[in-house]
């Protein structure tokens, strides 16, 4: 298992190296370049200034040389300076990452908890009316465009009823916990409703299979209570396929929820990556995209390792 | 099965018949009427008008045509690419298989939306696309199809590879080989039919995903460019008027929702039907 983990970590490192170069090259293919932007902002800049600035920023060197320079710097822990926010990349990234973790984390826990309940309820009585209702609800969740759901929630609860704030992270000038929480309600509700359908379908399928196993029938024959059968005998087996899905969505915790963040003007990672990419902020975009990639790949590794813990039959070659 | 399928067919029929019908009735979908902005429903404009006085109903139907075309075209292209990759990987095996499957795994494990944003924002001139094509109206359409194919082919590739691995050593394939059949012939007539059912299911579900992707990218301003209308762009335009004219946002969103849920339910129903047959055969 140590060997397996080590090989996977090496693979992850190799993938990251390739990814970082691809992203680096792709960002160079975006419209405009930073010097052009500066030139537009300051008409007094002369052609000599442009040449001088290109040398200062190293833009006169070939792509690969610039990339190597970036890697050397990044490996020493210096991710550079964000032009868009006029601050070091780390100090821009960290608060946004915290915001995203709060937003994504709470909706993740909520959606998972509800999906476990709904999926189990549906799996216990397949083809019942309850099952059909839960199935339709799941499909509705999967098929709902996130921004439309957000719009409707804003229309009803912010614009219509006026119960909740529609945007931002806190009311300017206040610093209460209640205020922060009230700003979280609508974005968290949007994300939860959007992700619950997919989770529920996986839980239902996994639970249905687990409940059909022989050891569950044995437990039932021995007179175990329904709660004990579900929680003790079926849940563990059912969690195996669910773990993969969870791990895949865990990576999303770091890349943020661009659409929801945009709709609610919530300063998270998704919006940050979008703004950095659109604003030609190379250093910031690279760091944020790579961070999201690392998180996704580590989450996948964690899922593979969790397999072995949940299911002793799994062997790591 | 019947309900969702009928809904889907109705939406498709209206979307494709709507714009010509509107043209026949002399309603131009891009006709601006600044004196009649944000009007409520009335006989000439059954769903009212938008922020530029354009007819909402006709634009809704025209937008449906764009969204559905992208969804179907991209899903079919992704299925074709995935099938090709899956057949090659499964039949040749060895190194080809390992490299191709690593690539599929890598794509599945990436944070896709942020990367798609980078790809959607690329400057086509810097990529060497001919300027005439890069500036044409249809380029935003083509670009979304390409992006959707890039992320969508992996499911089909895995399905087809799996089926190819299973069937490759079956007797009827061996027999065809010993009779001197070429590789393309074996792949197309002996192996592909065995994977058609799950492939159809995956493609149906992919149509739904592509329509959602199109709407997200258009919503972010990276998708369909004006004057072309899609459901995503209509929603994006309506966003600023959300309090004064909420219906402008509700209609296109509802169309996306209905289309996507109909596709998903159809795919699910197909899957169950195919599963039953597979179970009956065993």
> What is the strand content of chain B?
under 5%
Oligomer: heterodimer
| Number of strand segments of chain A | 2
**Fraction in helix of chain A:** over 70%
Average of pLDDT of chain B: 79
Main sheet: strands, sense, barrel of chain B: none
What spatial order of strands do you see in the largest sheet of chain A?
A: 1-2
The largest chain-to-chain contact, stated as pair and per-chain residue counts, equals: A-B, 46 and 39 residues
Helical content band of chain B: over 70%
Specify the structural class of chain A.
mainly alpha
Notes on the structure:
The complex is a heterodimer of chains A (317) and B (282). Chain A is mainly alpha-helical and 317 residues long. Chain A contains 13 helices and two strands. The termini of chain A are close together. Chain B is mainly α and 282 residues long. The chains are: A mainly alpha (317), B mainly alpha (282). At the A-B interface, helix 1, helix 6, helix 7, helix 10 and helix 11 of A face helix 4, helix 9 and helix 11 of B.
């Amino acid at each position: 298992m140590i060997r397996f983990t080590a090989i996977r970590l090496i693979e992850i490192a190799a993938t990251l190296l390739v990814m970082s170069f691809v992203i680096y090259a792709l960002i160079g293919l975006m419209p405009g370049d930073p010097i052009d932007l500066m030139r537009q902002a300051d008409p007094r800049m002369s052609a000599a200034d442009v040449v001088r600035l290109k040398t200062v920023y190293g833009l006169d060197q070939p792509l690969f040389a610039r990339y190597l320079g970036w890697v050397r710097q990044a490996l020493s822990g210096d991710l550079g300076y964000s032009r868009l926010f006029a601050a070091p990349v780390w100090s821009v990234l960290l608060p946004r990452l915290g915001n995203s973790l709060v937003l994504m984390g709470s909706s993740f826990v909520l959606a998972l908890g509800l999906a476990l309940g709904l999926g189990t309820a549906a799996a216990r009585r397949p083809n019942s009316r309850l099952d059909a209702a839960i199935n339709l609800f799941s499909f509705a969740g999967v098929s709902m465009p996130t921004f439309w759901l957000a719009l409707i929630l804003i229309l009803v609860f912010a614009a219509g009823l006026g119960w909740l704030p529609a945007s931002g992270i806190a009311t300017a000038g206040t610093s209460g916990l209640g205020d922060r929480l009230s700003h979280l309600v609508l974005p968290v509700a949007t994300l939860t409703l959007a992700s619950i359908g997919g989770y529920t379908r996986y839980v239902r399928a996994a639970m249905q299979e687990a409940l059909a196993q022989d050891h569950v029938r044995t437990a039932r024959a021995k007179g175990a209570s329904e709660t004990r059968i579900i929680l003790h005998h079926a849940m563990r087996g059912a969690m195996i396929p669910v773990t993969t899905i969870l791990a895949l969505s865990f990576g999303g915790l770091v890349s943020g929820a661009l659409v929801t963040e945009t709709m609610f003007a919530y300063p998270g990672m998704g919006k940050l990556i979008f703004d950095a990419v659109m604003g030609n902020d190379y250093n910031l975009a690279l760091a944020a995209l790579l961070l999201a990639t690392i998180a996704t790949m580590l989450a996948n590794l964690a899922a593979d390792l969790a397999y072995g813990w949940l299911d002793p039959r799994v062997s790591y070659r | 099965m019947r309900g969702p399928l009928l809904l889907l067919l109705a939406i498709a029929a209206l979307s494709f018949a709507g714009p010509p019908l509107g043209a026949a009735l002399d309603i131009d979908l891009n006709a601006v009427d600044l004196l009649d902005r944000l009007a409520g429903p009335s006989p000439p404009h059954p769903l009212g008008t938008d922020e530029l006085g354009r007819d909402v109903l006709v634009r809704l139907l025209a937008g449906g045509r764009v969204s559905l075309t992208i969804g179907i075209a991209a899903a079919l292209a992704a299925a074709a690419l995935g099938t090709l990759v899956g057949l090659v990987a499964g039949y040749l095996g060895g190194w080809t298989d390992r490299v191709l499957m690593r690539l599929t795994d890598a794509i599945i494990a990436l944070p896709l939306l942020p990367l798609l944003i980078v790809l959607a924002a690329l400057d086509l001139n810097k990529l060497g696309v001919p300027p005439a094509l890069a500036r044409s109206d249809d380029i935003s359409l083509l670009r979304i199809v390409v992006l959707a194919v890039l992320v969508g082919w992996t499911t089909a590739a895995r399905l087809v590879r799996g089926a190819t691995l299973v069937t490759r050593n079956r007797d009827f394939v061996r027999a065809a080989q010993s009779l001197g059949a070429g590789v393309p012939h074996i792949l197309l007539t002996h192996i592909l039919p065995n994977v058609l059912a799950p492939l159809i299911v995956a493609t149906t579900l992919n149509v739904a995903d592509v329509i959602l992707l199109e709407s997200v990218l258009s919503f972010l301003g990276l998708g369909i460019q004006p004057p072309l209308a899609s459901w995503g762009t209509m929603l994006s335009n309506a966003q600023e008027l959300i309090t004064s004219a909420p219906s402008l946002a509700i209609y296109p969103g509802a169309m996306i929702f209905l289309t996507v849920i109909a596709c998903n339910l159809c795919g699910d129903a197909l899957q169950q039907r195919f599963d039953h047959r597979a179970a009956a055969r065993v």
